[in-house]
Amino acid sequence: MVKERPDPCQRQACDIQVCLQANNYKESRCESVLRAMERCCEKPTAQDSVCCSGFRKTNRRKPEDKEKR
């Protein structure tokens, strides 16, 4: 029986959701948890992370870019 390892960035992904919900989905108020997720996704152990699949550094806009829209 093969045991699946938990996603290495699951905790950071959950922290983002909690922060966004608590701050009315304003990314600018969650920069620290977003940076923590970026750092986690940059680690070699996270290369196959499902949580990181849509959260690569090149895909993320700065909050001020979104607010200009």
UniProtKB/TrEMBL annotation:
Going by the entry's taxonomy, the superkingdom of the source organism is recorded as Eukaryota
Say yes or no: keyword NADP present.
no
Q: Which cysteines are joined by disulfide bonds?
A: 9-40, 19-30, 41-52
Compartment(s) of residence = Mitochondrion
Output the InterPro entries linked to this UniProt entry.
Answer: CMC4, Cys_alpha_HP_mot_SF
* Assigned keywords, A-Z: Disulfide bond, Mitochondrion
PANTHER family with a match to the protein in the record: CX9C MOTIF-CONTAINING PROTEIN 4
State the family named in the UniProt similarity comment for this chain.
Belongs to the CMC4 family.
Q: What is this protein called?
A: CMC4 protein
Upper classification of the organism: Eukaryota, Metazoa, Chordata, Cephalochordata, Leptocardii
Name the gene. CMC4
